[in-house]
């Protein structure tokens, strides 16, 4: 490096600007030799330094003369400092090592300044870095994200901004997924770039660039990306308005503010000194910084704060640790310079004792407007706030409602599969669907604050992997980034967790169960009559009439019967003449607990009665036992009660849905059994085993069950239903000869049974797995949904949803209670006995009417004569209770009727009573 006697290094341009202090050659004007190191293509900085040189020449009152030596720097070539090109970071290295006072306008905060990161307090006074506006303006993105609670962001920038060092620091410690990318050239490339960002579930876009770049970018965006679920923020260093052929777009627009008191200075620089490089804020920043740096050196020299005999070290003299000690406080004099600026004041601040470098900047303001573009023109621009440049400076909003309208509604894409009661179509519902999961996602949305759109997958499946490792259904949508959320009765499976993420389960463990047609046992009011066969009933009836007739014959012809030997039995209390009517009545009542009454007097008749009693006892006992067994057996007719029962029989076909988790379970269990069999077979046929080892494997039967292998084969032969409707139809079309059982998720089957009276659940659940919400792998929604579901679980909201959709569902079928083994006999099977009672009572009523009619209208009694009997000595009075005799004649039949008189007085000549 060339030796500079009495030089002052000063760095301050985009990459680096270095100024070197020079000795004073005269008393009226101070000559300063400047080493200006500027990055390639940084035209605003080059132009600004040229204008400063001209400005000082035209304004002699400053008393400064400059001799500037220029060097271009880049980021790749590491050549000698005084050759044509050097890397910008190299400048900081040698200025620190050689102790050269430097003012730098390089980009970056403290962590980005690798060469000046850990400089001591003495070096902090003469090695200064001021962040340019293009480096501080991107910090507004951080303020917007915090203000609007943005969870995802795409930050696109053009050549007017340098963002390489912002990838880590811009949104550090903020839970926002973000992408920072350079705006590509060409409309097609820009459209593809936006599409790729959208596939990353980003709906908040920040465009940082010049107005000539912003317009074409907006035009390359699809119209759908300007809907309410997207937000666009345009940030520029220019002062003009947005010009775009975009139609129907509303966005946030931020640009620097130029105060009225500074417009005259800017106008003078543009017109008088031709400082017209764009962006203006950067050009005038370099102008103000260079001018202030030169004035700082002038003031230090005038105040004797700059040693006149300061010695500068050459590169060859540097030994690694011999950096000169400078007693310079460049920072203090820089702050004291009284020179107007164009946009704002320089802020040299330190945060919590940290160095000034990385925290110093120009303090200016930016307007925040809401701009509406209609028909390619900005039809409305409404000021809604202002932002003051700085690190973590909040937005100053004066219209909260307007800025809320600029917030992108978080709308997630939900894919689902119809499955009652989890997901059901409902045209009247807000989203067109209703069910348990719809209520669940609405509860989560109220906590996490988002909206969603929902649609069904085309194949109607949650997702299975084929032999080639390809997925279908909801899982495929999540893998391809076409869905944000997979909703429904989706089981947590190990292979799915490899490619997607699950939230915590929202539903208890759910297994596979069996659904069959409910057996409909035929009921009959006269079922008690079917206990005995018809021929048995006829035989009993024949025995009844035969016994009754035989008893009448025996009573009529036996000399010891009552009717043939009345004198012998005249003193008995009960006298019964067994005519044919009495015999029929006796045999009938003998079968009842009431008994038949007085038995015949003759021995032969009693033997007949005893025989009938024995017959009746056996018949009644047999009937009673048979009736109980008959009614019990009709309720025990359940051929399948478990999965094992289903596997052991061949009469009933069974199968799960094709492509369902139940099908996957049986297929895998069969494959595992097959692998176990191959292992056992290889062990048994292994020739390397000793005879003793082989004998331990010698068994007659295969030691591992092959239940699932046989079941899987039977399922394939039965043909798996394509959907749930087909499965239910096959179950309903089952007959006793060709039955069908469906194996599926227990929740689906329980709901079908609850809403259909002809279906039933058989057996216990097996292969139980929880239900959870699926999200993309690595999605931020997992943690948010986990917290929301746990909150709902603690509030017992999930239990209330179960009550709503499983117990209080309005479409729940009102089914008759199925007969249970512990239940009594139903009225449908025993109601005939009540009919018998009602029929008997009806016949008795009819008989009573007939008797009344017969007695009153068919007998027609006629009085023949009346014999009066009066006790001796009491003629003329007939005491109460005197018996009158009357003889009636009905055709050829005579009958004597005895009447009791109630006369108190009877005349001497008693008149004949009239009947």
UniProtKB/TrEMBL annotation:
Q: Which residues form the Ionotropic glutamate receptor L-glutamate and glycine-binding domain?
A: 421-480
Q: Which residues cross the membrane?
A: 535-554, 610-633, 830-854
Q: Where is the Ionotropic glutamate receptor C-terminal domain?
A: 411-808
List, alphabetically, the GO terms of the cellular component aspect: plasma membrane
GO molecular function list:
ligand-gated monoatomic ion channel activity; signaling receptor activity
Note whether Membrane occurs among the keywords.
yes
Q: Where is this site: Crucial to convey clamshell closure to channel opening?
A: 640
Q: Which UniProt keywords apply?
A: Cell membrane, Disulfide bond, Glycoprotein, Ion channel, Ion transport, Ligand-gated ion channel, Membrane, Receptor, Signal, Transmembrane, Transmembrane helix, Transport
The way it spans or sits in the membrane comes to: Multi-pass membrane protein
Q: Which cysteines are joined by disulfide bonds?
A: 757-815
Range of residues in the leader sequence: 1-26
Main location per the UniProt record: membrane
Q: Which InterPro entries match?
A: Glu/Gly-bd (IPR019594), Iono_Glu_rcpt_met (IPR001508), Ionotropic_Glu_rcpt (IPR015683), Iontro_rcpt_C (IPR001320), Peripla_BP_I (IPR028082)
> What is one Pfam family matched by this protein?
Lig_chan-Glu_bd
Keyword check for Cytoplasm? no
Instruction: List ligand-binding residues for L-glutamate.
Output: 491, 496, 661, 745
The record's similarity note reads: Belongs to the glutamate-gated ion channel (TC 1.A.10.1) family.
- Which PANTHER family does the record cross-reference, listed alphabetically? IONOTROPIC GLUTAMATE RECEPTOR (PTHR18966)
Q: What is this protein called?
A: Ionotropic glutamate receptor C-terminal domain-containing protein
């Amino acid at each position: 490096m060339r030796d500079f006697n009495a030089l002052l290094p000063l760095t301050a341009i985009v990459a680096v600007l270095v100024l070197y202090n020079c000795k004073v050659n005269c008393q009226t004007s101070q000559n300063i030799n400047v080493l200006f190191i500027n990055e390639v293509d940084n035209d605003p900085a080059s132009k600004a330094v040229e204008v400063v040189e001209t400005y000082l020449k035209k304004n002699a009152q400053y008393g400064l003369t400059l001799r500037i030596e220029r060097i271009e720097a880049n980021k790749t070539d590491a050549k000698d400092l005084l050759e044509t090109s050097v890397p910008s970071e190299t400048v900081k290295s040698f200025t620190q090592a050689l102790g050269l006072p430097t003012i730098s306008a390089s980009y970056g905060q403290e962590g980005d300044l690798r060469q000046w990161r850990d400089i001591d307090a003495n070096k902090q006074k003469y090695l200064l870095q001021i962040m340019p506006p293009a480096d501080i303006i991107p910090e507004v993105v951080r303020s917007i994200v915090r203000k609007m609670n943005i969870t995802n962001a795409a930050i696109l920038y053009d050549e007017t901004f340098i963002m390489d060092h912002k990838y880590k620091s811009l949104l550090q410690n903020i839970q926002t997924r973000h992408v920072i990318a350079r705006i590509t050239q060409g409309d097609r490339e820009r459209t593809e770039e936006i599409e790729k960002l959208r596939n990353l579930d980003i709906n908040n876009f920040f465009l940082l660039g010049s107005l000539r770049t912003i317009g074409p970018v907006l035009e390359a965006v699809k119209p759908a990306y300007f809907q309410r679920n997207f937000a666009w923020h345009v940030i520029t260093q220019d002062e003009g308005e947005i010009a775009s052929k975009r139609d129907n777009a509303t966005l946030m627009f931020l640009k620097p503010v130029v105060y009225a008191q500074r417009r005259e200075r800017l106008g003078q620089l543009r017109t008088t000194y031709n400082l017209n490089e764009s962006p203006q804020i950067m050009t005038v920043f370099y102008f103000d910084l260079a001018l202030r740096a030169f004035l700082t050196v002038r003031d230090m020299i005038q105040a004797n704060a700059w040693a006149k005999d300061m010695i500068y070290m050459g590169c060859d003299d540097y030994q690694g640790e011999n950096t000169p000690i400078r007693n310079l406080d460049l920072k203090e004099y820089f702050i004291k310079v009284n020179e107007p600026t164009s946009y704002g004041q320089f802020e040299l601040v330190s945060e919590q004792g940290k160095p000034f470098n990385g925290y110093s900047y120009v303090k200016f303001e930016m307007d925040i407007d809401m701009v509406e573009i209609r028909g390619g023109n900005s039809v409305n621009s409404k000021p809604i706030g202002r932002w003051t440049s700085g690190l973590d400076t909040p937005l100053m909003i004066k219209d909260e409602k307007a800025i809320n309208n600029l917030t992108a509604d978080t709308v997630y894409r939900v894919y689902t599969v119809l499955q009652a009661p989890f997901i059901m179509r409902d045209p009247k519902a807000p989203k067109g669907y209703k069910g348990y999961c719809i209520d669940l996602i609405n509860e989560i949305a109220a906590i996490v604050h988002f909206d969603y759109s929902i649609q069904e997958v085309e194949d109607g499946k949650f997702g299975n992997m084929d032999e080639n490792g390809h997925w279908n259904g909801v899982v495929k949508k999540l893998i391809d980034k076409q869905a944000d959320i997979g909703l429904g009765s989706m089981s947590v499976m190990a292979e799915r967790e490899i490619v997607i993420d699950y939230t915590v389960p929202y539903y208890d463990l759910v297994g596979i169960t069996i659904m069959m047609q409910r057996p409909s046992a035929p009921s009959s009011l006269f079922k008690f009559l079917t206990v005995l066969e018809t021929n048995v009933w006829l035989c009993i009836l024949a025995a009844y009439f035969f016994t009754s007739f035989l008893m009448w014959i025996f009573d009529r012809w036996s000399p010891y019967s009552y009717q043939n030997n009345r004198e012998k039995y005249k003193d008995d209390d009960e006298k019964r003449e067994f005519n044919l009517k009495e015999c029929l009545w006796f045999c009938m009542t003998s079968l009842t607990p009431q008994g038949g009454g007085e038995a015949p007097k003759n021995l032969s008749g009693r033997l007949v009665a005893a025989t009938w009693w024995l017959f009746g006892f056996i018949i009644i006992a047999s009937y009673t036992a048979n009736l109980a067994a008959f009614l019990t057996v009709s309720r025990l007719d359940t051929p399948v009660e478990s999965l094992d029962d289903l596997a052991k029989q061949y009469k009933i076909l069974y199968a799960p849905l094709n492509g369902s988790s139940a099908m996957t379970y049986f297929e895998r269990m069969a494959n595992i059994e097959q692998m176990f069999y191959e292992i056992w077979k290889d062990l048994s046929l292994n020739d390397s085993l000793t005879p003793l080892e082989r004998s331990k494997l010698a068994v007659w039967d295969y030691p591992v069950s092959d239940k699932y292998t046989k079941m899987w084969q039977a399922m394939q032969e039965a043909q798996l239903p394509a959907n749930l409707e087909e499965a239910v139809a096959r179950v309903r079309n089952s007959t006793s000869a060709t039955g069908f059982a469906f194996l599926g998720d227990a929740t689906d089957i329980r709901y079908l049974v609850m809403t259909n009276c002809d279906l039933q659940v058989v057996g216990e659940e097996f292969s139980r797995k929880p239900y959870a919400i699926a999200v993309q792998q690595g999605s931020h929604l997992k943690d948010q949904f986990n917290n929301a579901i746990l909150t709902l679980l603690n509030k017992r909201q999930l239990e209330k949803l179960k009550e709503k959709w499983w117990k209080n569902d309005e479409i729940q079928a009102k089914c008759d209670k199925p007969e249970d083994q512990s239940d009594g006999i139903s009225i449908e099977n025993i109601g005939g006995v009540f009919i018998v009672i009602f029929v008997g009572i009806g016949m008795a009523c009819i008989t009573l009417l007939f008797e009344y009619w017969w007695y009153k209208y068919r007998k027609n009694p006629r009085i023949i004569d009346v014999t009066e009997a009066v006790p001796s000595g009491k003629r003329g009075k007939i005491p109460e209770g005197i018996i009158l005799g009357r003889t009636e004649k009905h055709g050829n039949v005579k009958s004597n009727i005895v009447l009791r008189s109630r006369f108190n007085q009877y005349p001497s000549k008693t008149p004949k009573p009239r009947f």
